[in-house]
Amino acid sequence: MNEPESIHPWSTIWRDPRGTIRQIVEINPSHSLILLAVFGGLGNALNYCSSFGLGSAMELSEILALCILIGPLSGFLSIFMWSWLLGFSTKFLGGIATKQELRAAVAWSWAPIVYLLPLWGVKYILFRGELFRLEKPYMEAHVFLSGINGLFGMVDFLVAIASLFILFNAIAEVAGLSIWKSIGAFAVVMLALSVPAFLLLQSVVPMQ
Q1: pLDDT attached to residue 141
Q2: Tell me: the pLDDT tens digits for 35-72?
Q3: b/e map of 103-118 (b: 16 or more CB within 10 Å)?
Q4: How far apart are CA 196 and CA 203, in angstroms?
Q5: What is the C-alpha to C-alpha distance for residues 31 and 207, in angstroms, rounded to an integer?
Q6: Would you tell me how many other CB atoms lie within 10 Å of the CB of residue 188?
Q7: Closest CA relative to residue 173, chosen from 185, 191, 162
Q8: pLDDT tens digits, residue range 121-138?
Q9: Number of CB atoms found within 10 A of residue 181's CB
Q10: Is residue 56 a contact partner of residue 134, using CB atoms and an 8 Å limit?
Q11: d(Cα 102, Cα 73) in Å, to the nearest integer?
């Protein structure tokens, strides 16, 4: 009862997210949940640190330590927060998913992020100190490195699309909703999170 018998979820989640998530929740909704939360959270933390250019204020060793310490914890919190909020939005739209099923749907949407983790080692070898900085003069001065960085950016974009594709289909399957209602449920949660985030930003950033 620890792992789905007729599927290999780490490979089938890409091409058949509905069938994969259905068998997962029927056999064991918590299958690989810890692994997905830990390594998905780590991948998200690395992405955030890179996107916000944290390397301009912190040493690389400090950033990596922060990601290793905070990433897994944020992974668990994100999965539980998203599944909790999706419980309200899907129910409002007529969904029937349980909290466990929604946790599985959210967690497995991070499978592409987990797959992408080894690329961070390649990025470190190539970019080193500029990996987490917004300014990348050395990289931009070398056509090869600049091209590789653009290729990595394209891969990151495709992985984000794959993650959303899995999430929308997984929510639709466990909640018994159409794909459009699934996207709507996701949009409602995004709106619910963006409003307080915007108000908080307005309170800490001085008015110009």
Answers
A1: 80
A2: 999 999 999 999 988 888 888 888 888 899 999 999 99
A3: bbbbbbbbbbbbebee
A4: 10
A5: 48
A6: 17
A7: 185
A8: 898 888 877 888 888 887
A9: 20
A10: yes
A11: 19
